[in-house]
Amino acid sequence: MEIAFKSPRPTPNGLQATPEGLWVLDQGKENYVSLVSFGDGKVIREFQVPGLAGASGITVDADGILWINDTHNSMIVNCSAKDGKLLGKYWCPGAGRPFQHAGDPPAARSPLAPPPQQAATPSARTRVGPGHLALDASTGLSGEGGQGMEFRDGLLYYACLPSRRAYVLDPRTWRIHAMWPLPGNRAHGVGWEGDSLWIADTNWRALFRHDTKTGEILEKIQLTERDPLIHGATVHDGYLWYCDDVGVICNFKL
Asked: Which of 1, 30, 233, 254 is 20 to 30 A (C-alpha) from 38?
């Protein structure tokens, strides 16, 4: 594992690899989304998405629309990948209050120094179709919503911390096509390797590779307590990229 570069904003919490570059979602109150170069982290473009709260996952669909898990608001939102204009808000299946099982690891903290504090932004309106909320909605359901996200073949794949499950969601009908249990209580970033899906668990400091048809764990990568903590994750050219929310972007070869 190595630190590739500093995040463009101090509290990154979601990543998505695309041919154009690496999308970095910041969970600070200014709600920045940045597209950066894989080579040096240089910003290609960035913008603010209004009204997010602790957002934790980001992906891009086949039409180039950004989807974001607005975690603390228990919503999923989508917006333009050009300027961040809000297009829709939706309630998040699986949202609720996190709980613990006997044997869960304690809450993990990054070994790196925390970033400085930040400040807030506004919101807007409109509602159409399955799952939709008004654009000025401030919450989807009580508790917490989803984390890392990926898009493939018309479906959203995301990890949901409170229900301790992964979901496969059709964004056109807002129906769940599949779901499976996850091994920990702090699921986070996700990334494709072939037809299997890596899902990080922050408290376990580990990544688990799942068969997306059965949910079976095929492989586990364990990081140490000295490594930057896993939050957002994605896969690009045989490397797993992840961010620690204290401001660094890391990678390692799979």
From this structure: 30
| Separation CA 22–CA 166 (nearest Å) | 23
Domains contained in the chain, number: 1
217 CB neighbour count, 10 Å cutoff: 15
Residue 186 near residue 235, CB atoms below 8 Å = no
CATH of the domain at 205: 2.120.10.30
Using DSSP's 3-state secondary structure scheme, residue 172 falls into: coil
pLDDT digit of tens for each residue in the chain (254 aa)? 899 999 999 999 999 999 999 999 999 999 999 999 999 999 999 999 989 998 999 999 999 999 999 999 999 999 999 999 999 999 999 998 777 778 888 889 999 988 766 444 434 445 567 878 888 887 776 778 899 999 999 999 999 999 999 999 999 999 999 999 999 999 999 999 999 999 999 999 999 999 999 999 999 999 999 999 999 999 999 999 999 999 999 999 99
Residue 110 in domain: no
Measured between alpha carbons, how far is 15 from 26 in angstroms, rounded to an integer? 9
Asked whether residue 104 is assigned to any structural domain, the reply reads no
What is the rounded CA–CA span in Å between residue 249 and residue 242?
6
